[in-house]
Write a structure and sequence with these properties.
CATH superfamily of the largest domain in chain B: Glutaredoxin
Number of helices of chain A: 5
Strand content of chain A: 15-25%
Oligomer: heterodimer
CATH topology of the largest domain in chain A: Ubiquitin-like (UB roll)
Distance between the termini of chain A: 52 Å
Structural class of chain A: alpha+beta
CATH topology of the largest domain in chain B: Glutaredoxin
Number of helices of chain B: 7
Order of helices and strands of chain B: HHHHEHHEEEH
Strand content of chain B: 5-15%
Largest interface: A-B, 17 and 13 residues
Largest sheet of chain A: 5 strands, mixed
CATH class of the largest domain in chain B: Alpha Beta
Number of domains of chain B: 2
CATH class of the largest domain in chain A: Alpha Beta
Strand order of the largest sheet of chain A: 2-1-5-3-4
Shape of chain B: flat
Low-confidence stretches of chain B: none
Mean pLDDT of chain B: 91
Helix content of chain A: 10-25%
Largest sheet of chain B: 4 strands, mixed
Chain lengths: 210, 179
């Protein structure tokens, strides 16, 4: 066990433990979307979990706990980085909370409230994908304009089935989560495994009514 | 990811692929070389080929699709007889190359990266073809068309269609002449 200092609070944690997880376990909330507590190398894609260590911004999910680490989670610099990353995510998000199945239990709403950022972003061009709804898979519906590309579904599927039936496809602004179409090869008629649907923080993956 | 209607030539090329695949070791490291070989032989990656590769390497086809869509060298639609490349490099961008692209897309009813159903035209976007003084530039087949304008888009497509009809008429004339 080692001692670290987070926002002037002394915390004991195991040497080499994940800093983000350690903070979350000790009731210090750090916004995050893509972090999975699965012991794997963190994806570090959402850029929301910034903290400051020795004045430098670090994505806390990539930081290991070590003796004497001094961490600040609530400095203006950290908040500014988090807000910028969050606003960029929202600029490609179709904000229709009232119609959204994730309403009131959506990670984006929670983070927006925490960072005091309105979900309707100002000053950024809104870029939505067209078509936004991918219904190519026989059982799965993917709302690409709801998806935050955290990749949790891909990783959870990978872990459960050895290789993932979901994948990132395309590149840049066009990046999407794709299930391709594979009715015959997937174990996924989703009666057995709905891990990807359950893990989605914004309910971008939905089961089709079939 | 729309369904592509395969011609008999495509089907023959795909059939041939099956034997080609055996040359490769069953390792995911071979995924890209295999895809390149298919792109070379079939000129695009139809869903059937993706499925075949996935089956061969024993990975889900979504993974093959994910890798293939990352690279520009892999196409998912067959090339058109008149491939159109619209330049959106810096100079063409400044001279509104995106409007030219949009004009082609609207005129042909397909989007960038797609092919018309009769396989006459396909549209691709490229970044700089090296004649920025002529911006905005479009390339049809092997001909560079500089100083593009929406009216020229109309003209180019029309010319190809007229030539095609003319060739068709002559063919019919020859056939009836022979009889």
């Amino acid at each position: 066990m080692v001692k670290i200092l987070v926002d002037n609070k002394h915390i004991e944690a195991e040497d080499g433990a994940n800093l983000l997880q350690t903070c979350l376990d000790n009731d210090i909330y750090i916004p995050n979307l893509c972090y999975l507590n699965d012991g794997q190398i963190p994806f570090a894609g959402c850029r929301l979990c910034y903290v400051q260590i020795n004045g430098k911004p670090v994505a806390s999910c990539t930081q290991k706990v070590a003796e004497g680490l001094e961490v600040q989670t609530d400095t203006p610099e950290v908040r500014s980085l988090q807000k910028a990353a969050f606003r960029l995510l929202l600029s490609v998000h179709d904000i229709k909370c009232k119609e959204c199945p994730a309403n009131k239990r959506c990670e984006l709403q929670r983070i927006g409230k925490f960072l005091k950022v309105g979900l309707k972003v100002k000053g950024l061009e809104v870029r939505l994908k067209d078509p936004g709804l991918d219904s190519g898979h026989p059982y799965l519906l993917i709302d690409q304009n709801r998806c935050v590309l955290c990749g949790k579904c891909v990783r959870v599927c990978q872990k459960k089935h050895g290789h993932s039936y979901l994948t990132f496809a395309k590149r840049g602004f066009e990046t999407v989560i794709s299930a391709y179409r594979q009715p015959e090869e997937s174990p996924l008629n989703f009666s057995e495994c709905t891990a990807c649907i359950d893990i989605c923080p914004v309910r971008a993956l939905l089961l089709k009514d079939v | 990811m729309d369904d592509v209607v395969l011609t008999s030539e495509d089907k023959a090329a795909l059939e041939e692929l099956r034997s080609q695949l055996d040359r490769y070791e069953k390792s995911t490291a071979n995924l890209i070389p295999i895809l390149q070989m298919i792109q070379e032989k079939v000129k695009f990656l139809p869903p059937a080929a993706i499925k075949m590769v996935a089956g061969f390497l024993e990975i889900p086809s979504s993974q093959v699709y994910g890798v293939a869509t990352f690279y520009n060298q892999f196409k998912f639609n067959p090339p058109g007889k008149n491939p159109i490349k619209v330049c959106l490099g810096t100079a063409c961008h400044v001279r509104a190359g995106d409007i030219i692209l949009e004009n082609f897309e609207r005129k042909l009813g397909i989007r960038e990266g797609e092919t018309t159903e009769d396989r006459e035209f396909s549209i691709d976007r490229v970044a700089c073809v090296g004649c920025c003084a002529l911006a905005p530039v479009a390339i049809m087949g092997k001909t560079v068309h500089g100083h593009m304008a929406p009216s020229k888009v109309e003209g180019l497509v029309m010319r190809v269609q007229i030539e095609r009809e003319k060739a068709e008429r002559e063919r019919q004339k020859n056939e009836s002449g022979q009889n």
